[in-house]
Design brief:
heterodimer; A: mainly beta; six-stranded mixed beta sheet; three-stranded antiparallel beta sheet; globular; B: mainly beta; four-stranded antiparallel beta sheet
Amino acid sequence: AQRVTQPEKLLSVFKGAPVELKCNYSYSGSPELFWYVQYSRQRLQLLLRHISRESIKGFTADLNKGETSFHLKKPFAQEEDSAMYYCALSPGGGNKLTFGTGTQLKVEL
Amino acid sequence: GAVVSQHPSWVICKSGTSVKIECRSLDFQATTMFWYRQFPKQSLMLMATSNEGSKATYEQGVEKDKFLINHASLTLSTLTVTSAHPEDSSFYICSALAGASNNEQFFGPGTRLTVL
């Protein structure tokens, strides 16, 4: 069975500092990886997916199959980035999502 | 983007009663919807996959007779928690698969269930 691990429950950074939210996964096949974000009092929404290879709101994530990681990065954190971030995995070709436990990002001024 | 609604947003019920939660895709059709459960400060756990016009597929460990799912139309799926008990108290979230958006899942705002 697949598993997604986010080792940090809380990550606190100062505005303008780089951000890296860690995500590791275990899956025997070729997964699709996602990052979802939940801002305060809002619903979960897709931030980015690895197959798109795009930067959203300054965030990027690269799938590293050797290290089975999909870390989320942003060079300069903004206050509006404060939110709960979930890494998720979907088996290749499927739609079911397995979520990590989430990391609360707090950007301080 | 596509919008998914849930009703009610919160519900309190007595132990032993049944509660129905609705999930609607407002501006798109969804042949597939998902139901998740989230305990406080924990992750979302997939409960079941709801398919329009067919039986739902339940994840291992989820009692299908307790959590009844009906996907009667392309815009509505319902989750009924039967004979609810305090341990069923949780945050229930649905999502709908939008085929036109490269199979992206759009999430509802969730329903807070409290069983007394």
